[in-house]
Amino acid sequence: MCGIVGYTGPRQACGVLLGGLTRLEYRGYDSAGVAVVSDGEMALVRRVGKLENLKAAVAGDPVVGTAGIGHTRWATHGAPTEDNAHPHRDCSGRLAIVHNGIIENFAELRTELAAAGHAIRSETDTEVVAHLIEALYEGDLVAAVQKATARLHGSYAIAAVHLDHPDLLVAARKDSPLIIGLGDGENIVASDIPAVLEHTRRVAVLHDGQVAVVTPERVTVHDASGAEVEPEVMVVEWDLDAAEKGGYEDFMLKEIFEQPKALRETLRGRVGEDGRIQMSELQMSDEELAAIERVFIVACGTSYHAGLVAKLLIEQWARVPVEVDVSSEFRYRDPIVDRNTLVVAITQSGETADTLAGVREARERGARVFAVTNVVGSRVTREADGVIYTHAGPEIGVAATKTFTAQIAALSVLALRLAQARATLEPEQVASLWAELATVPDVVEAILADAQDIEACAREYTQAVSSLFLGRGMGVPVAMEGALKLKEISYIHAEAYPAGEMKHGPIALITPDVPVVVVATQGHTYEKVVSNIQEVRARGARVIAVATYGDEAIRSYAEHVLWIPQVSEALSAIPAAVPLQLLAYHIAKLRGCNVDQPRNLAKSVTVE
Ligand code: G6P
Predict the structure, then answer these.
(1) CATH code for the part of the protein at 448-596
(2) Relative to the CA of 337, which of 59, 72, 326, 350 has its CA 20 to 30 Å away?
């Protein structure tokens, strides 16, 4: 987690750094700081809390200088205090660094450096790196960073500045993202693209083990041996507008409303003129796809829920067994994965540490691994055998929304592609499912256009302490995602269960104060779901149902109905998820929560 920015160029660095940090605040927001090379001094300002506090401090006492580094923190080592906030300096105060990641051998290094006389002031692993670079510094900052990183275990993205080299930034990475925005007479190092977009669209992606030497005029990239290598440069196609709120109150709301577009983009070009489903990224023939004996899906958080939807689709359409694991379990549990297994790693950020470890684990066991991700150039794209991109555009709100539905869209195409290759569906069935899938963006648009009542419904549940989400079949992962959305942004406890399992425990929780959200869309278990609604109602529960337009009977079972258009059961996950995103959003807003930056969470979990 954590966001880092570095600037070198003709302009005042502090403004650029604060602008960049504003766009990276989603990565962490418990404290922030900047260090600027300022007329022979290292000016350092750090503040606890949101970036606003740092901005206010700088506004009152401007920091002058044209090269510097900045950081927004998500604490791993030590509480969010000013002393623990980045940047960190060495003993001399001439070197400052920012870091994202975890240095696993920091305790050992700390002992060694303290014994050598270094005065370490904070509890962080980062400060140890500053002292390590100081210990190895003999006038060449690049060499010192290179030697220091060779001693680090764990993950890092680092940017360093030194008073001896006033316009130089040195950046290095391993297992944490880092890019360099290439400007005209200026360059900007950052954890993620939105931080540089205001200034440039040309971006160099730093790879693991590489060190970048950045001055206003030049960027050179070196590999671990010190040899200069050609940087991988790409031109970003989306603009800053896409990474900003565009008139919405929050990123989350904007991203919920961007779903029709995200879905259209993700589904674009997926059927050829011959009517066949296209997924050339797989680079696998029909024969190879038919030879797959098992699919394993690994993912975390919301992406895991997309995986659960995909399991139902792949098993139903392609008749191949699918297992879904949370990545942190998969990587440690000796899974049965071999060369006949297709592993699908779902990660919107492409940087989730556990999912990346899962990818490595699966490849070591001989499986072919495909990533489903939203971020071009992210780490998973280099680790997997192939990449299926969702084209949702940047997602800034910590709680995933548009990337979730885009993942389901991409995975639905994958399921159809597998079914086509394995001939488990007739060509006409594939064609008709594709035709319906292609209408899902319009369905979502219709839901969003008719969602005004959800806020009124939300108003009645703002005081809830606990809630239950129920569904069957496709409704189970939808209920799980609905519960996750509610708990992560409103802090109301929310538990999801398969409705049929409710009698085995959760029914004991039912009181009039525990709202029950039920996914009751049309499908072959609809009647069963209605019975479950009756059971909770008989125990005093207030029910919010997600149901299909025209289902007038549901009104008599539920206090509130969140309506969606009729779609076939297999394709109901995306439409049914949307009202639950809005329900969570409105409840959280009415409770005064910061929906874009919920407490304790981070957008991309780059540490284990
Ligand atoms: C964090 C985010 C979630 C996300 C999960 C997995 O917990 O807050 O929104 O679903 O990480 O992230 P990934 O980038 O791997 O999909």
Answers:
(1) 3.40.50.10490
(2) 350
